[in-house]
Design goal:
Blueprint: H1 2-24, H2 31-44, H3 51-71, H4 75-90, H5 94-97, H6 112-124, H7 129-154, H8 167-185, H9 188-198
Helix pairs in contact: 1-3, 4-6, 6-8, 7-8
Length: 200
């Protein structure tokens, strides 16, 4: 699994990191400063959108372990994991933040929840695309409305509900997943196209 994934990921990632870095470096600086700047950039990502690749590498390293667990888990055990994950996401809402304790929830937190959620939706949920589209728009509207009112109240942009690990974004993601799952399952051409694209 790791050989297959990393062989596709690391070379393009390294290439684009170097390209972005080469475009950002101030070549008039002393060599030691250029080197120090390059190392700092490569550690955190030479361009903002590359954060995703760093996150993906961490997930890929954990997937072989997660895979063993999820294939041997019951539906109830997967729901147990997802329930705690959702609870952790809810803690960022001011109204729920008062429930915060010193309990270490890190084992259930982060983007790993999306992997488990995707497995659950694929294997245990069978809903129509119309329901998925409705969920997406509910998540989208909640994001837009809360961001607007929070920003108006504070007088500056408050983008906390745009966070990828906020419940409203999870709801929108579930909607998109359900809609595409329903569309794809009915169309052989799309299935073939996705299989072709996924090879590359």
């Amino acid at each position: 699994f790791l050989k297959k994934r990393f062989s596709r990921l690391l070379l393009p990632f390294a290439l684009w990191s170097i390209i972005y870095l080469a475009l950002k470096i101030d070549y008039s600086l002393p060599t030691n400063e250029i080197l120090s700047y390059a190392i700092k950039q490569l550690k955190g990502g030479t361009e903002f959108h590359l954060w995703y690749v760093y996150m993906l590498i961490g997930l890929y390293l954990f997937i072989p372990i997660l895979n063993k667990w999820i294939l041997n888990s019951t539906k109830k055990e997967i729901i147990y994991f997802l329930s705690i994950w959702i609870f952790i996401l809810l803690l960022q809402f001011p109204i729920f933040n008062k429930l915060f304790t010193r309990i270490d929830f890190r084992y259930f937190s982060g983007y790993i929840g999306y992997l488990v959620l995707g497995y659950y939706l694929q294997h245990y949920v069978n809903l129509k695309k119309s329901f998925g589209i409705l969920l997406f728009f509910l998540g989208f509207l909640f994001t837009a409305i809360t961001t607007y009112f929070l920003s108006e109240t504070l007088g500056v942009l408050d983008a906390r509900f745009y966070d990828f690990l906020s419940v409203n974004v999870v709801v929108a993601s579930i909607g998109i997943f359900i809609a595409f799952k329903d569309i794809i399952s009915r169309n052989e051409k799309i299935i073939k196209a996705i299989s072709f694209i996924s090879k590359y």
